[in-house]
Design a protein that fits this description.
Layout lengths: L1 E5 L14 H13 L5 E3 L2 E8 L2 E8 L6 H11 L4 H4 E7 L7 E4 L8 H10 L5 E6 L9 H5 L5 H21 L4 H8 L4
Parallel strand pairs: 1-4, 1-5, 5-7
Antiparallel strand pairs: 2-3, 3-4, 6-7
Helix pairs in contact: 1-6, 2-4, 6-7
Length: about 190
């Protein structure tokens, strides 16, 4: 089983913010594949189903971004998953312009506190990730204000296109076609 985790912050206050890019992708996957997020496990809203014949669990941690590792490690441990083989994490990336994706098989936290916590709590950086571009913070802005803010209309359109591509990328990844997903989506727009 693949555990596909989208990072974000719970409550309506944070809906459609840049930091909730992972939640938006999970919602789009759930819609496309008819997976209901109707379970509460590992401090997350979860749902199980199938993507192209592969069993998956979708998860939206309810721990707030900086404590995402609490939820991810609880799910990994409960289901006895191997993060290198079974975990895909989807999250926002300020180093990518809206509309861009970056898929990686492993790597550092790159300054992202949610990923930093997942690495700390799972004890590994060896897990697949889909980074969804939300754009750099404007000069003079506080980073928290930027990532907790909402997109302009133009950037929202680009971001919505990236969400669709992220769904397609995850679909390839659960079919053991991560290299193909990287070749297709790791390009600057």
């Amino acid at each position: 089983m693949y555990l596909i985790v989208g990072l974000g912050n719970p409550t309506a206050k944070y809906e459609k913010t840049r930091h909730n890019a992972g939640f938006d992708v999970i919602d789009a996957i759930a819609d496309k594949y008819g997976i209901e997020l109707n379970l509460r496990k590992g401090k997350a809203f979860c749902g199980t189903g199938y993507i192209e014949g592969q069993k998956v669990m979708l998860a939206k941690p309810q721990t707030y971004m900086n404590l995402s590792g609490d939820s991810v490690s609880a799910l990994v441990n409960f289901y006895k998953l191997d993060p290198m083989e079974d975990l895909i994490v989807v999250f926002d990336d300020i180093s990518l312009a809206p509309g861009n994706l970056r898929i990686r098989k492993k790597g550092s936290a790159g300054g992202h506190n949610g990923i930093k916590d997942i690495i700390a709590k799972t004890g590994t950086d060896q897990f697949a990730r889909v980074k969804v571009g939300v754009g750099e913070k404007p000069a003079g802005w506080d980073l928290a204000d930027h990532v907790l803010g909402r997109f302009s209309l133009e950037d929202r359109e680009k971001f919505d296109d990236a969400v669709k591509e992220a769904v397609d990328a995850v679909t390839l990844m659960v079919q053991d076609r991560t290299d193909e997903a990287m070749n297709r989506y790791n390009r600057k727009k």
